[in-house]
Write a structure and sequence with these properties.
33 helices, 51% helix, 5-stranded antiparallel beta sheet, 9-stranded mixed beta sheet, globular, alpha/beta
């Protein structure tokens, strides 16, 4: 009865309303701290103050909602104890305030709010991360104590104030409005601006809470995949038990770039000798050593002085000039947890990352395990604790011969240089130095060795800091950036300094390796696990944008490929190369999601692959020239730049693909249906069924039948509309440009049956083969045109393009010469001739060709880029 009287009298409401004010004040203090931290730690090309000011409205909304929950608890306790109700609200407010403060620190470091990814890490991993980062240092603790004093002090003062009853009604009304009206949120395509305004505590509760309750009530990806084999997601897969298995027959796309024959003097020329390669030790029959170097946080933005934060990896920069180099490679995950499964096994993600499954990882094959079975000595080295992300369990499943991490190094050498300075583990130079002494004791050949660096990781400290601070200033002077770029570099001096340090560590490691007798028989693969997180990301795909380098003294010459490939393509690429060039026994059955890398030099994207941001979030999907990010659709442009696209049907189609991938991904991992050693080969498709298995449901039971249905539909449409030959040609072109090569070729074949001399159609047919990397079939089509009409001008353009894409600049040059002999001065031939000459490093001849092009066509679009390549 007393409770009713008190509530009816409004006493409880009048006493709790001031506490709502304390809660709002607490959030606003967190907002102010966040603003100060972001301003002091980052240089952003947006108005941080504007976004943070807008965030005040989001904080007020968060205070209303959380205050309503706390008020319910307050009223409940109020009937028993007014003091208890008071301290329940105050302690809860303090907890929310401290959370807001901690999340502000986290956001100021990463420019990403903490959300459902929190649930992907164990308490030990979280503790290790906090200890290494230094976020639990003196200043954060002092700020937390100050906040506690303010909250408690204001709360005690509020006990002497009673708000009018109408204030409670106003608060309730505002709460209802907050549920009905969306707060204004400025459009922010830049990822670092996207979350500036949100209340970080509310975001954490919504994201992490949503992921938790989804899992509990059985609507997570893991739950929905069980028992769904009869659903549409599995309808067009070839094998319902093992939907991602196929017959392994990987094309060797690297062979044309390597000289696998050796002599007593070793490689006489090419990319290898450019870095001072000595000699190859074998007779050409023994497989090469493979050395993988995973450079923590190495995004393409940090490689090459022309890039946004380039200039601080001078050794990697120079190495890229003597390597096969893919600047537009894409990692599978936005954090390190997916690197090992993707790079070495082209594996799916499971629900929280493949390695997170621990001992429940399904049966699978990786490059490590396959080559281990074929005689390779396999090893892994890093300075961090291998238990992080379950790397140790993953390596155990691959049966690696040696796995060395922080604990093993400490046991072997009796020290740990990383303890006193709060490094993530062993400093990179120390790790490489100690590991080289271990490698000297390994006699077994060939070897597959994996190195993972760690210095370019929070807290971004290096040994000999004074020395590297001077190195930073010296490097800045050599780059000589403008004032705006200099300010940006200075804002991230700590991060960029760690790049200098690890780059030095790699340089020293290569200097040591060059003294080894088998250096000439070694292939090095260098890449990043993801783009460094604390430095602002300009787009949703930036976190995945990494470089991929393949360096070896066996290379004939260096080549840059601007086409898009993924790290999941590396294992299939090397398997095809080793099988074709060295006779390494190929795999008969595979489940790898990737395909051999794209060796097209011009920018293009033919890949289709979902990407996983963190351990609880798979919302990104790369599909050819489009990119889906958290429901927003973009078009992919050169350099992996994104431009927004308004195409609802296309967006829905990609979301359907992503949804179906998630379902099958979870089924094959949770039900151990990824790989079956005894599955009959004749029941498996000839190539990865990933694209059809992640596509929208199809009526047919196989990719071949699906393509046949599309072809039949297109041909029926032609017949119904009674299209003329030119109209059919335009339809074939459009289908080809849309990436539907099977239909384009079917229409072209129909036209050629009726008009064998329709040269443009035959050229289109050949180009579709070239775009898919089937260069021999493309050449056949082009030469047939030349046999019919040696003077048909566009044939030489198509042939030159194909040879350039195939990595045969000599043949491309020959095609342009023949074309120019028949059509002197034609600009398109001159453009391709210049590109071929540049690829052959014949700069003077290329300059003369460009001068001729400028006389023939002063406004040619290619002039600027060609000149920049000749006179950088």
């Amino acid at each position: 009865m007393k409770l009713v009287e008190k509530i009816e009298g409004g006493e409880a409401v009048r006493s709790v309303v001031p506490l709502w004010g304390v809660l709002l004040t607490t959030f606003l203090i967190g907002r102010g701290v966040e603003y100060a931290l972001v301003q002091s730690n980052h240089v952003l090309p947006v108005s941080v103050g504007f976004y943070e000011l807008l965030g005040v409205a989001h904080d007020a909304e968060a205070a209303l909602i959380s205050g309503a929950v706390l008020t319910a608890a307050y009223l409940l306790v109020f009937s028993f104890s007014r003091r208890g109700a008071f301290w329940t609200f105050v302690c809860s407010t303090l907890a929310l305030g401290l959370a807001q403060l901690g999340l502000a620190y986290y956001y100021a470091i990463t420019l990403q709010p903490l959300g459902r990814d929190l649930l992907g890490y164990s308490l030990t991993e979280i503790t290790d991360t906090i200890e290494a980062s230094g976020t639990a240092g003196f200043l954060p603790v002092l700020a937390a104590l100050a906040l506690a004093g303010v909250v408690i002090g204001l709360s005690l003062l509020s006990r002497h104030y009673r708000a009018p009853l109408w204030a409670g009604y106003v608060g309730g009304g505002l709460l209802i409005i907050s549920f009905l009206v969306d707060l204004p949120s400025p459009k922010a395509e830049r990822t670092y601006a996207e979350y500036l305004s949100v209340n970080k505590t509310a975001y954490l509760f919504v994201e992490a809470g949503g992921a938790f309750f989804e899992f509990k009530r059985g609507t997570s990806d893991e739950s929905t995949s069980r028992g769904s084999l009869g659903n549409a997601a599995m309808r067009d897969t070839v094998s319902r038990q093992y939907p991602w298995m196929y017959r392994s027959d990987y094309e060797d796309v690297l062979g044309p770039f390597f000289d696998t024959s050796t002599s007593e003097d070793g490689p006489a020329s090419g990319a290898g000798s450019a870095l001072g390669a000595t000699s190859a030790s074998g007779d050409g029959s023994a497989p090469p050593n493979l050395v993988f170097i995973v450079f923590e946080g190495l995004g393409t933005a940090f490689v090459g002085e022309e890039n946004t934060y380039g200039g601080f990896t001078p050794f990697v920069d120079s190495l890229s000039e003597h390597s096969l180099y893919w600047p537009n490679a894409v990692s599978a995950t936005g954090r390190t947890f997916g690197l090992m499964p993707s790079l070495f096994g082209s594996l799916p993600y499971a629900s929280r990352g493949f390695m997170e499954m621990g001992d429940r990882m399904p049966l699978h094959r990786t490059l490590i395990s396959v080559l281990g079975e074929r005689g390779y000595h396999t090893s892994y080295y890093s300075g961090f604790n291998l238990s992080f992300d379950n790397v140790d369990r993953f390596l155990k499943r691959q049966e690696v011969d040696r796995a060395v991490g922080r604990n093993a190094l400490q046991d072997m050498f009796g020290d740990d240089p990383g303890v006193a300075e709060r490094y993530w583990g062993y400093p990179d130079k120390e790790m490489f130095s100690r590991v080289t002494s271990i490698l000297d004791t390994t006699d077994r050949r060939p070897q597959l060795s994996i190195f993972h660096t760690l210095q370019t990781h929070d807290p971004f400290t290096v040994p000999n800091e004074d020395r590297y601070d001077k190195r930073f200033e010296n490097q800045l002077g050599q780059i000589d950036p403008g004032s705006e770029r200099r300010n940006r570099y200075k804002a991230y001096q700590d991060e960029l300094t760690t790049f200098l340090y690890t780059d030095d560590a790699l340089r020293q490691f290569f200097q040591w390796y060059k003294t080894q007798p088998d250096f000439g028989d070694t292939i090095f693969v260098i890449t990043g696990d993801h783009r460094l997180i604390p430095v602002p990301q300009p787009s949703q795909i930036a976190r995945y944008h990494v470089p991929l380098l393949i360096y070896s003294p066996l290379l004939k010459k260096s080549t840059e490929f601007r086409s898009v490939s993924t790290l999941a393509d590396v294992a299939p690429t090397l398997m095809g190369f080793l099988s074709e060039q060295y006779g390494v026994a190929p795999m008969e059955r595979s489940h790898w999601l990737g395909t051999p890398v794209d060796t097209t030099r011009q920018f293009r994207s033919t890949r289709s692959m979902p990407l996983m941001r963190n351990k609880n979030q798979m919302v990104d999907y790369l599909h050819k020239s489009h990119y889906l990010a958290n429901g927003k659709l973009y078009r992919l442009q050169n350099g992996l730049r994104l431009s927004p696209v308004s195409d609802q049907p296309k967006s829905q189609k990609l979301q359907a693909r992503l949804s179906r991938f998630k379902t099958i991904n979870q089924y094959v991992t949770s039900e151990d249906r990824l790989y079956g050693a005894s599955v009959p080969l004749e029941t498996l498709p000839p190539t990865t069924p990933l694209r059809s298995a992640s596509a929208e449901p199809a009526r047919s039971a196989s990719p071949e039948a699906t393509a046949r249905a599309r072809i039949d539909s297109a041909l029926a449409e032609i017949s119904q509309q009674d299209l003329t030959a030119p109209e059919q040609f335009q339809l074939a072109r459009q289908r080809a440009f849309d990436g539907d090569y099977e239909v384009a070729r079917a229409i072209a074949g129909r036209l050629l049956d009726r008009s064998p001399g329709y040269h443009d159609v035959r050229l289109l047919l050949g180009r579709t083969h070239a775009w898919e990397g089937n260069y021999n079939r493309a050449r056949e089509a082009f030469h047939e045109v030349l046999d019919r009409d040696p003077g048909y001008y566009d044939t030489y353009n198509a042939l030159a393009d194909t040879e350039l894409w195939a990595g045969r600049p000599e043949a491309a040059l020959e095609a342009t010469k023949k074309g120019l002999a028949k059509h002197p001065g034609r600009p398109s031939y001159l453009v391709k001739k210049a590109k071929a000459l540049l690829a052959l490093d014949r700069t003077d001849s290329a300059r003369a060709t460009v001068n001729e092009l400028e006389k023939e066509d002063p406004k040619n679009d290619a002039l600027s880029s060609l000149k920049s390549r000749i006179e950088p």
